[in-house]
């Protein structure tokens, strides 16, 4: 089997292949155009891509079940809500810090103290910004522990 560089190749009477400089053709016999049968054409030149593309995989979902893409999209489009802690004259500062750390996931001691101080001096403080369902749950837990709290839409995002 030889590899030749040719200027023109007739694949059939109606099709003519004109390879560019640097293209390689594998032939059964002969050197050039109409003397052999092309068996493989490597159409990549220097610096060009080539090869087969892999077949794309299409995610199939079962009826009644959302795809991972749909879940991510719905999370992104859900408007955020603020959980607000209001100052009261009943609870001690240490107790407020303990409740914040118990109720809000990931709440550190430093953040809880800062939120408590802000509510004490300014009358209210933003505890967390999250989804509406989570905000409602956090608000109910804070109230269940004797703290005054509310939620509101977080205009302007997180």
UniProtKB/TrEMBL annotation:
<dbReference type="Pfam" id="PF02617">
    <property type="entry name" value="ClpS"/>
</dbReference>
<protein>
    <submittedName>
        <fullName>ATP-dependent Clp protease adapter protein CLPS1, chloroplastic-like isoform X1</fullName>
    </submittedName>
</protein>
<dbReference type="InterPro" id="IPR003769">
    <property type="entry name" value="ClpS_core"/>
</dbReference>
<dbReference type="GO" id="GO:0030163">
    <property type="term" value="P:protein catabolic process"/>
</dbReference>
<dbReference type="InterPro" id="IPR014719">
    <property type="entry name" value="Ribosomal_bL12_C/ClpS-like"/>
</dbReference>
<dbReference type="InterPro" id="IPR022935">
    <property type="entry name" value="ClpS"/>
</dbReference>
<feature type="domain" description="Adaptor protein ClpS core">
    <location>
        <begin position="77"/>
        <end position="144"/>
    </location>
</feature>
<dbReference type="GO" id="GO:0006508">
    <property type="term" value="P:proteolysis"/>
</dbReference>
């Amino acid at each position: 089997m030889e590899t030749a560089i040719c200027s023109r190749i007739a694949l059939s009477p109606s099709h003519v292949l004109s390879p560019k400089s640097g293209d390689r053709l594998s032939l059964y016999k002969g050197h050039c155009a109409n003397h052999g049968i092309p068996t493989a054409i490597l159409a990549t030149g220097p610096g060009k891509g080539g090869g087969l593309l892999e077949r794309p995989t299409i995610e199939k979902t079962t009826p009644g079940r959302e795809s991972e893409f749909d879940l991510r999209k719905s999370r992104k489009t859900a408007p955020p809500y603020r959980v607000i802690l209001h100052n009261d004259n009943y609870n001690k500062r240490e107790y407020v810090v303990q409740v914040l750390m118990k109720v809000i996931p990931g709440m550190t001691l430093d953040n809880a103290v800062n939120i408590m101080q802000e509510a004490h001096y300014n009358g209210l403080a933003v505890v967390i910004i999250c989804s509406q369902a989570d905000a409602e749950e956090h608000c109910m837990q804070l109230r269940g522990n004797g703290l005054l709290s509310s939620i509101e839409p977080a205009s302007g995002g997180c």
